[in-house]
Amino acid sequence: MTSIETSSPLLASRLWRKSPVIVRAVVTGFIICIPAANVIPAVALGAGASSSPALQTIVGLAAVALLVAYLWWTRGSGWPRSTSAARARATRVSSFSQRQWIMSFGAALAFAVVMHSALVILFRIIPFPVEAFHRGYDLSRIPSLPLKWLVAVFGAACAAITEETGFRGYLQQPIEERHGAFVAILVSSGLFLVAHLNQSWAIPAMFPIIFLGGVMLGLLAWSSGSLIPGFLGHTLMDIGLFAYWWTGIAGTFSAKTINETGIDAPFIAACIIFSVALAAALVAIAMLGRFRREQSASYASEKSFARSTALVT
């Protein structure tokens, strides 16, 4: 009995190592993402809903501490040290130059504009389902508008960090190494869509937009070799989603469909904005890929020079 119990963890470990990379990546990505993506925002919501300012501060700081600890651990710090390198590799930890940061902000802004203009276009074609979008995002218990905005922004950052870490990090990155970027982005984007099907706003007409968001975020992570552009873009997108589309604290979409108005100037403008932003995002993705290749080539050159110098001396 003792030998069986002792060997069970070893057997499980052996089976885990022998399972396909895609299976391990998917399981790990969901474990890393889903619990944190639900628990941390819930703590922040509890802080905002509290009637005591002192309790708001304490619980709010606890939510921030949880998010910082999550980032700290998933990016390779802490115990167990034996998995530090694997965690850092999964989250694409790397140095980022000034021009990479600038291009990342540009890519993030373009991505957010693409997603929100896509929503505007969609809900000019079909009626906007206000009730479905607002269900589950009731902030009425939070006493003030500034606090509602604070919860919305923090919730957006939580969703962005946990989902990018899980889907574009722990899930996509190992599949990239084993099967290439195309398969990895396809898998991560498909599962990104599946993970959101439990949301009331995830109506069938939203599926292409969710999948497009997953593909663009996957491309950002792959081309830049970092989760930073995805963190930025996903946060900007989700601030708009939380504040406008889901909670209504920034207003509610009320435009009529083109079935009622005809193809009017605002609809044409939304289509133009979507096209221009998509082109800009794709250019930024290409530039981030170029910067990464140049950085890798420079690093390889410096390493080769240092090795040759060491041999001479």
Radius of gyration: 22 Å
Instruction: State the end-to-end distance.
Output: 61 Å
Q: Tell me the series of helices and strands, N- to C-terminal.
A: HHHHHHHHHHHH
Indicate the structural class.
Answer: mainly alpha
Level of helix content? over 70%
How many distinct beta strands? 0
**Relative strand content:** under 5%
Number of helices: 12
Largest sheet: none
Question: What count of structural domains?
Answer: 1
| Low-confidence spans | none
Overall spatial form: globular
Mean pLDDT level: 93
Oligomer: single chain
Fold and architecture overview:
There is one protein chain. With 313 residues, the chain is mainly alpha-helical. It has one domain (18-312). It has 12 helices and no strands. Helix 5 (98-125) packs antiparallel against helix 9 (207-224) and helix 8 packs across helix 9. It starts with a helix and ends with a helix. The mean pLDDT is 93.
